[in-house]
Amino acid sequence: METIKTDRNIKAEIATAGYSLARANELAIPDELRQAWLSLLIDYADLPADEYLPGGAVYRYRRYGRFNFSPDSGELKRLPHEDYFQSADINRVTGGYTRKFAPLLDGIFANPFLRALIRFDFAQFPLDARQRSGDWEVHAHLIRVTATAGQPGHPTPEGIHRDGAAFVTVHLAELVNASGGDVSIYDDDRKLLTSFRLRQVMDSYLFNDAILWHAAAPIQPIDPAHAAIRSILTFDYHHQPAH
Description:
Layout: E1 5-6, H1 10-17, E2 19-22, E3 27-28, H2 31-42, E4 60-70, E5 75-78, H3 106-110, H4 112-123, E6 135-147, E7 167-176, E8 178-180, E9 183-186, E10 192-196, E11 204-208, E12 213-216, E13 219-221, E14 228-240
Antiparallel strand pairs: 1-3, 2-11, 4-5, 4-6, 6-14, 7-11, 7-14, 8-13, 9-10, 9-12
Helix pairs in contact: 2-4
């Protein structure tokens, strides 16, 4: 099984600071998985519109799906599609009601790069004894945000928020003609800890969603004659305690 590797001690950084920023050049991706990554990127051009943006705006497109992950075996199983919900206390704009997003395509569920990345990310988490037992439910999201000269694109229209998971990972998939999009990480009191920009495909950040908040600034086109695009591949990890 092909695997993604890094020399960066992401686990220690998450354990001490709650988050880690890993640049694309710090991740070693085998050629076979890189080909699968390129195949996955094709699907970003055909994502359905997110129908839940404030004011009925149309600038975000997405699909999402669920896996069951067994750390002991490394097995990933596709779970039936279901609606998406976040509570209003962690998402003040689109939380508190059920959202219906299009499911991942069959080829996305089977994509070996996506599956390898889910396993790689999980291996970076500093888990306590309770979290090391039982399986995990992983939510995978493909999200594209666009912007024009007259309409900025908001990666997080809800502003500072949590995703409601134990851990969250975000990987840059596309960046075309886009400025802005700076990511900000906040402590539990919503005090700013750091800000950074994802610039290269596969620039990534991983964080403990249970203790931190986060947000991403709007994007704008560098050349106003053309649209800006910023896409991410993001995973939410939810622990399923053993009974």
